[in-house]
């Protein structure tokens, strides 16, 4: 299906952000955690509701205020038992903290800002269980405030349905294309776009039965256009 506009232009993503702002308001994410704290939080957050993963994170840091003690702990699975795949996440968490302790015994990851975005992502992704979502979260959502777009399951679903990426695209592909489309966007800009798109995925563009009629970005969405049938996309 040919559309009357081009994908992956900066103005397209700005349009998506502006339409979502009209629906949800401006989002102002905070970057309060240290990089190591955000790394731990992100490692246990996958496919888990925010309130559940936040509760698990709080239990971890209450039980083990020292990262070195957390890395050596044997009861991590119990502490994060209500997240998805707690056994796998506990294993990755212990191994990741142990690996960091070898090279950075103070667990201070501020040096990542000196590596630049590609270098910092590569360093983090050598750690057990750390993929592009976790590494981008560590850079953007922490006090590092480095520009990296966090692609979770909600974001990937929306990008695929909208037509930004192919339906079988993975997180890394979606990340690379989004970052290429948004040169010059600050960490705060990318964090806001993440929050707004996640809200859309939670409320409107859900896994089952997406509500395309009320979707604020359906005008330019390929899936919505397919469901409507052949039509001309009106200009704005």
Jot down its keywords.
12 helices, Endonuclease III, domain 1, 236 residues, disordered N terminus, 0% strand, mainly alpha, 2 domains
Task: Give a short summary of the structure.
With 236 residues, the chain is an all-alpha fold.
Task: Describe the structure in your own words.
This protein is mostly helical. The protein has 2 domains: 10-27 and 151-228, Helix-hairpin-Helix base-excision DNA repair enzymes (C-terminal) (Endonuclease Iii, domain 2), CATH 1.10.1670.10; 35-140, Endonuclease III, domain 1 (Orthogonal Bundle), CATH 1.10.340. Helix content is 56%, strand content 0%. It is built from 12 helices and no strands. The chain has helices at residues 10-24, 35-43, 50-63, 67-72, 76-79, 86-103, 112-124, 132-140, 153-162, 171-181, 187-203, 222-228. α7 packs antiparallel against α8 and α9 (153-162) crosses α11. The radius of gyration is 19 Å and the shape is globular. Mean pLDDT is 92; it is low at 1-7.
